[in-house]
Amino acid sequence: MIAFADCQDLRKMPVIKEIDCPKCGAKKGIEVIERENHTIGDSVCDRCGYAIPEGAVLELYLEQLT
Ligand SMILES: [Zn+2]
To answer: Are 32 and 12 in contact (CB under 8 A)?
Structure first.
């Protein structure tokens, strides 16, 4: 049997989140890919085209907007 010894690597796996668009309010309008709390690539709203830039900390970024 092979043991999966490097479980810690899971923490570096990208996480995909769907969030409501802060601009047009589209429910789950933006798909954000996050790794270690930073966004990867531009996350663009399906409806209005609003984009969250790469390398943003999502929670802080959204706080700044409100
Ligand atoms: Zn939008």
So the answer is: no
